[in-house]
Amino acid sequence: MLDRELAAFAAAGITAIVDEAARAAGMLRIELEFPAGDAAVRLVAVYPDFFPFFRPEVAAPELELSRHQTPNGGNLCLIGRRSSNWFAEDTLATVLVEQMPHLLEFAQSGDLAKLADVEEHQGEPASVYYNWEAVPDSCVLVDSGWNLKGTASGTFRIRCERLVEPSSLRSYVRGFVDRVTDAAGLELASWTGPQPEEASVSLTGSWSRLPQAIPGSIHDVRACLGEEEWARLSAPEPGNYKRHVTVAALVFPDEIGHQLYADGWGFIQFDHPRAHRGQPRGVHGYFLRSARAGASDLAARSAAAATFTNAVVVVVGLGAIGAPVAVELARCGAKELRLVDGDTMEPSTARRWPIGWPAFARAKGRVLAERIHSDYPWTEVVTCGEMIGRAAEPGVRRQGEMIEELINGADLVIDATAEMGVSHFLSSLCELRGMPLVIANATPGGWGGMVVRFAPGSPCWMCFRTALYGPEPQLPLPPADDSNAGEVQPAGCAEPTFSGASFDLQEVSLEAVRASASMLGLQGGYPIGAWQYACLSLRDDGERRPPVWTVHPIPRRPECSCAVP
I need a surface site. Which of 8, 241, 249, 263 has the fewest CB within 10 A? Predict the structure, then answer.
C-alpha cells in the first residue's frame, strides 16, 4: 500500500517524504509538497491503522482557511465526512489533485462562491471546536430557538449539578442555561424545557458576543480576547466569592446549515484555586462542552415522533410488552403517561424488562416513573398501582373514580395486559367515551403477537373476537408455542405466564407505539394505513423466521351494536 501511495504521489508531481521516526513507532506519516504555481504548499498526511478502508488525514500547517480547515490542528476537509466518500481503491494523490486547487483558489480570493459547486451542502459549525479539550463529563445545554437580537453582552444563569472529579478535585458542570439577560438586566431568553430536580445549583456568569468564532485552544481564545476581557469574564460571581468556579460564554455566528447562521455558544469554566500559604494562584480556564437541547433540537432527528409531543397516554399493563411501550413513548416526547399496574417486577422477568437489578421486587409503575423522570424529564408520569377489576372494599376508593381520573383528558389508551377481561372492559369504556384504543399482546413462546387499533366508529372488540374465534373465523391467529415450554410458572410466582425473549417481544411493543402514533396523527401526522389488526409471525411450523406482519381490516358483525349509527 505504501508503494502504491508513493507511486501515485510521484505520478502527480507531489514530493513525498516518509517520516521514518514515526514509521518506526508504528505510524505512517508522510510530509508532502503540493505544487502551486511557482511555489509549493506543505502538507502532512497521517494514515489510519486501517488504511485503505479509511482515508488519511491531511493537515496544512501554513494555510489559514476560514472554511474547510479545522481550527485545531489545521486539518483540511478535502472530501465529505462520510466514509462513503472514500473508496479503498482511492489514493490520497488523486484526492489532492482533484480538491486542492479549489481550496487554494479560495485561499487567494476568499470568495465562497468559488466553492459552491464542489463543496457538500452542509453546515460547518464552529461551536463543535469549543468542545475538544472540555472538562470530562461537562455539559451546558442551550436552546437553538433563542434569539438574542444581536445584543453585545450580558449575563446568564446556569442551573446545574455541581460535581467534583475525585481524581483531580476539579469541579465540572452539567446543566442548562436557565436565563439570558442583556447588560441592563433585560431578559432575552429563558429555558422552557424540563428542569430536573438534580439541577439544584445556580451559577451566574458573563457572556460576550464575538464577530466570529475564535479558532484554536483556550490559550488562543485568551490571546484574542485580551487580558482585560479575559479578566472580566473570569471574575468571581458577585456576592459569592467563596465559590471557586466561574463560567463565562462566548456567542458568535455559527453555521448550523449550509450558509445558514444562528447564535453559537462556547462556554469557558474558570477554576479559582485557593491561595497557597497566602499566595494567590493563577486562574485556569477550560472549555465546557455545550449542546443544543431546546424543543426543536430534540425533535430534529425524529419528526415522526412529533405526534406524541402534546399527547396524554394511558398504558395499562407494564409487563414485557407494556413497559417498553411506556419507555418508548417517553423517549418520543409524550407530554404525560398514566401507568397502571398492580404488580411488582419479578427478578425472573429481568431479561425481558427495560430495567434490571434496581427494579427487583419493586412496583413496576414506580420504577418506570423513576427511570423516565431521570432519562426523559420532559414527560410527566402518573402511576396507579391497582389491578383493574378488584372487588370494592369499605373505606377504599372506588375503581370507578380511579378510572375516571385516568381517562379524563387522555388522548389514547394502550392495553398491554393480555387479559381478556381487561381488554373487554377497556374496549367498552373507550367506545362509550369515543376514545382510541390500542391492544397489544404476544403469544406463548414469543412466536408471534398482535396489535389491534380501535378508533371511534370502527368495528369493535366483539367484532374482532368473533372474527378470530367465531364458528367461521375470518382473521388469522398468530403462531403460538402450545407445548409446555410456551407457558411457565417460575419458582415463587403466583401464576403461570407466557415465555418469550425480549428481542422477540419488542417487535410487538414497537408496532404498538407505531400504531399509537398513527392513531394520534389522524389529522395528517404519522400515516395510519387502512387496517385495524396486525398479526405477527416469528415462527413458521416452529421454524424461526424474520418478523412478518400481515395487516387486516376487522369485519363488522351486522348484528353488533357498533353498527348502529
Answer: 241
